[in-house]
Design a protein that fits this description.
Family: Belongs to the TrhO family.
Enzyme class: oxidoreductase
Number of strands: 15
Shape: globular
Protein name: tRNA uridine(34) hydroxylase
Largest sheet: 5 strands, mixed
Pfam families: Rhodanese, UPF0176_N
Function: Catalyzes oxygen-dependent 5-hydroxyuridine (ho5U) modification at position 34 in tRNAs.
Strand content: 25-35%
Distance between the termini: 47 Å
Low-confidence stretches: none
Structural class: alpha/beta
Number of helices: 8
């Protein structure tokens, strides 16, 4: 069975998610869909997986909400179901940032994957990876700055440490599927940065669109499901998840270097 994986999000102000949650939970369960959807007053975010027919029907159900008629989803294929269960949760934020930003009002300029290489080749552009350190460790763009964050809530501190609106006139950023950049770019604009750019659709869109021979991407892209990482063409990568520490580990390694390092530090 071919499994379709759909990553989706939309920032939109909605107050009635609680009324829709049970309907979507029943619908997705009946279709055999697994994955996670997060619902908050600021919108919807999540990744779901199922058969082609099931995903198509679920997207129709989601778009039946009057605020989600334009909901887009980016799809990839998995050799097996990458999720254990189905979860639809009501949250305070669909991606936790703990900053008063409004992506529905103003975000950075979206740059298509086909135009991204030219942008980041500009020496005046400061390129920053908005993801967490363990994600950056297995792949990123050439000359991208690693903010060395453990969670996305640390990103504002990284901005203060690494960037200056008076010095850094052009800032480009990227993340896995685009959602973190919505908040990160809105935050930078609020801090006085004038030219802020974000990779449209994130790394996954870039890997699905750009020819590997022309790619500026190095390594693999971590994803939050049992596939662990993806390569160009959104093909499965070479990592597995360590069941002890939850970090990606090269499949060729017999032991997890993160766990080994922790044991060494403890001794």
């Amino acid at each position: 069975m071919t499994v379709v994986v759909a990553a989706l999000y939309q920032f939109v102000a909605v107050d009635d998610w609680a009324d829709w949650r049970s309907q979507w939970l029943d619908r997705a369960g009946a279709l055999g869909i697994r994955g996670t959807l997060l619902l908050a007053q600021e919108g919807i975010n999540g990744t779901i997986a199922g058969t082609r027919e099931a995903i198509d029907q679920m997207l129709v159900a989601l778009r039946s909400h009057p605020a989600l008629t334009d909901l887009s989803a980016r799809e990839s294929i998995a050799p097996a179901m990458p999720f254990q269960r189905l979860k639809i949760k009501l949250k305070r934020e669909i991606v936790t940032f703990n900053q008063p930003v409004a992506p529905t009002e103003r975000t950075g300029t979206r740059v298509a994957p086909t135009e991204w290489n030219a942008l980041i080749a500009d020496p005046e552009v400061k390129l920053i990876d908005t993801r967490n350190q363990f994600e950056v460790a297995i792949g990123s763009f050439q000359r991208a700055i690693d903010p060395e964050t453990q969670t996305f809530t640390e990103f504002p501190d990284a901005v203060e440490r690494l960037l200056d609106p008076q010095r850094d006139r052009k800032v480009a950023m990227f993340c896995t599927g685009g959602i973190r950049c919505e908040k990160a770019s809105a935050y930078l604009l609020a801090q006085g940065f004038e030219q802020v750019y974000q990779l449209e659709g994130g790394i996954l869109n870039y890997l699905a669109t750009v020819d590997p021979a022309e790619s500026a991407w190095q390594g693999e892209c971590f994803v939050f499901d049992e596939r662990v990482a993806l390569q160009h063409g959104l093909q499965p990568g070479t990592y597995q998840m360590c069941r002890a520490c939850g970090r990606p580990v090269d499949r060729d390694l017999d032991t997890c270097p993160h766990c080994q390092s922790s044991l060494g530090d403890a001794s």
